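Dear all,

This email documents one entry for the complex benchmark we are building for the journal club exercise. For each entry we list the sequence lines for every component of the assembly. Then comes the predicted three-dimensional structure of the complex as a token string, followed by one or two observations. Please use this as the template for your own entries, and keep the labels exactly as they appear.
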Amino acid sequence: MKQFLTLDDLPNLHQAISDGILLKKDPYAFEYIGNRKTLGMLFFNPSLRTRLSTQRAAQQLGLKTMIMNFSNESWNLEFEDGIRMGGLSSEHIKEAAGVVSQYCDVLAIRAFASLTDKEKDEQEIVLNSFIKYSNIPVINMESATSHPLQALADAITIKENNLIKRPKIVLSWAPHPKALPHAVGNSFVRMVKQLDFNFIITNPEGYELDPKITGDIPIINSQKEALKGADFVYVKNWSSYSNYGKILRTDEEWMLTKEKMKITNNAKFMHCLPVRRNIVASDDVLDSDDSLVIEQANNRTFAAQVVLKRILENG
Amino acid sequence: MKQFLTLDDLPNLHQAISDGILLKKDPYAFEYIGNRKTLGMLFFNPSLRTRLSTQRAAQQLGLKTMIMNFSNESWNLEFEDGIRMGGLSSEHIKEAAGVVSQYCDVLAIRAFASLTDKEKDEQEIVLNSFIKYSNIPVINMESATSHPLQALADAITIKENNLIKRPKIVLSWAPHPKALPHAVGNSFVRMVKQLDFNFIITNPEGYELDPKITGDIPIINSQKEALKGADFVYVKNWSSYSNYGKILRTDEEWMLTKEKMKITNNAKFMHCLPVRRNIVASDDVLDSDDSLVIEQANNRTFAAQVVLKRILENG
Amino acid sequence: MKQFLTLDDLPNLHQAISDGILLKKDPYAFEYIGNRKTLGMLFFNPSLRTRLSTQRAAQQLGLKTMIMNFSNESWNLEFEDGIRMGGLSSEHIKEAAGVVSQYCDVLAIRAFASLTDKEKDEQEIVLNSFIKYSNIPVINMESATSHPLQALADAITIKENNLIKRPKIVLSWAPHPKALPHAVGNSFVRMVKQLDFNFIITNPEGYELDPKITGDIPIINSQKEALKGADFVYVKNWSSYSNYGKILRTDEEWMLTKEKMKITNNAKFMHCLPVRRNIVASDDVLDSDDSLVIEQANNRTFAAQVVLKRILENG
């Protein structure tokens, strides 16, 4: 594996899930693999889980880490080609990426969507610029349109908690006071599509995810209808995709509640975190024994470790 | 030892002091003890000594560290239970603590007093929330009401510099242009109370520390009277406790000067740092051979190492 | 070697260049040398290359690193002696340096010029205060008046790319929208003066570097004249030295272009980065095969490693 930008870069998702579960049992089994190698972690946005779980994953593989917060530790970067750099940006991505990739063996990058310019966001300018101008493998720690480390952790979590042959998975939109990106939703959809699940998405009208990603997955506007018989309910807010980056509603009707969970087949509750309590989901859902959110976060370490291990083995 | 929130968590202060002095002589004697373990250091406030000395202590125990500055690297946290999270906070402590504790083996946390709400500060909400929602040991790197790593370093420093059987220790309030917390004062008092010293506190009226902590220790308003015959003078500003968080005076009358040191029994001068020169104490005091402030800071490493070692041994 | 403040601290520049080239071939040859030692990296300004290359250099020597961003992680420092600290600064450099040097074995410090007070900048107050009040070796990661790690990396790069006995080196001023320090220019001049090169500086009138540094090196105001027959062209902006810190012109006349490179003897193009494209130099220069800028940045690792190794060997 030479890069990990979306889940599609994983040659075999089933194998990756199994690898993650094995690494969880014996996290230091490959401690030698990162010897004398360095992971550069570049952040253009805040991070808690990703920052710490990826560091931990690196440590468990014997890999050193160097962290760079571009918001306050370095120079403003310019991503446009051919521009006369007379403004705020002191350094062009051509140099920044070329330079940084000489100090590291692998790069991991977080760069969120702007939510103001769909075309630019879909070009994944930050991530793709680093790939173009660096000579080393790049890992996506959440980009404008995808968050594959989260999706792999979610896949591991479902695998660990699933008791039946073909579970029903519901991805439900939820309200949020701020406009959020589509990255987690997109990657979750891509992940479930690769596995043999009964999958349905539910969201209010106008909140449909990118149809190029959802394809022929059923999308319905009745959350209640969708939740019927669900084995796993994955809740997540995202802003409108068609009316790009806009918030169309923030009322509580779509908040996931204990009451709604009763419609399901004793479903497990999932969310990628951070989650706004009593807006996205109620306290009694988040605090119930059926919530997997803490376990999902735990599996972030092993998802990152699977990806780092594959990349190091190729190197 | 399962946690280190106040000095009272140390089963035996005398033993801890001796351990610190031994570790200072042979800092790498237990380099194997932290193998494959990670200390997560979480900062809600600035830090210089604590940040670096605790990292160094961890390194000397073979422990990896991961640092998180909550002010600019992560999400705003919500600490209130049952709240509808529609404001600035993106993540609840329940999730944050639960998640972070999965990536680390020990947590160390710095979270200062607000000085606006005495009741909340005394509840130590940040620290206690992390303890409540994480499953791993928590170390206090200065909380709202105590700074036990500093007090342990101070105890080591007094032990190293004390020549007589029962020295006279004076804790003297000093002026400061900003309202400061009571944490250092509180922990120093708790520490001295456990040792067989002749101890007296002096401060201007209205600046008495929490009487639940000072108990029956003599407190007098005459600094000169207090300094007579002192062997160690510990100077520190704190804001009013009764008139919580308020500054009652900032005049220079209480600044510690060389002149005042002459009243003492050639006392050693102590301060936890950072110190404002010529406000808290004059240059000639800070620059004199009797000042122990640099040595106190040095002992922060070994205080942290004693605590980390005990916690790792229990684990 | 006890400190590395300017290139003059290197006992033998030729040897240092050779050492750097050897370390580049076998970066882990001295992995044992930093065992149980810690490099403290203190930043008062942004940093990308220096931050990462110095960390990497340390790792390749088996040295641990601790990083401190003074702008947002610690207290404001006071550098003036005898002052009554009633303002914004919470800690004096006397304490800060004394304390920090106890937690580290080597310090590396970045502290840029103010460009408002020439005398203060030339006193190198930050760097010299750390030297004065700490007891450990100090490395300059770019100070007010010099950037010797960059110059050493540049020397290595020239050595690697030079084919003739006595190449012609041109240091050319270039325009920039912001006032920049003289550190890189100064150190480049100091470096070239130690080597047997044909060296000329070109800049617009009023932009002469400190004559105490340039000495008898020819300085001409015709960029075209200077570029004739050049083997290496080093381009860099700096603000006026005589009219200290001022920008006298920002027009494009002095931008380095492909057209101008034709005057040279197929010269290699050099710049320390970050570089503003199409202001300092045009895209076609930066993107040409003759550009060494990425290689210069790569050599920063080995320059830092040479310096760290010498300092550790002395220790």
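Observations: The CA atoms of residues 94 and 103 of chain C lie 15 Å apart. The interface with chain B takes residues 36, 38, 40, 64, 66, 68, 72-75, 78, 82-87, 89-92, 94-96, 98-100, 102-104 of chain C (CB under 8 Å).
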